[in-house]
Design goal:
IMS import disulfide relay-system CHCH-CHCH-like Cx9C domain-containing protein; mainly alpha; about 55 residues; 4 helices
Length: about 55
């Protein structure tokens, strides 16, 4: 079954976001880890805009 991301042709921003989250997880100290949403905000926004913009 096709995911929303595949259907919307948003694989590129989705991959950027997963890479960002992986890097953030590796870098940060688990005790004081900032939220991924703030670290990867741009990637989240790109993916969100992609999914929304295709919606008609």
């Amino acid at each position: 079954m096709e995911t929303l991301i595949e259907k919307k042709n948003c694989l590129q921003p989705y991959q950027e976001l997963t890479i960002c989250i992986k890097q953030a997880a590796q870098q940060s100290n688990p005790n004081k880890r900032p939220s991924y949403t703030s670290i990867c905000q741009q990637s989240f926004q790109k993916l969100g805009q992609c999914v929304v913009k295709e919606e008609k």
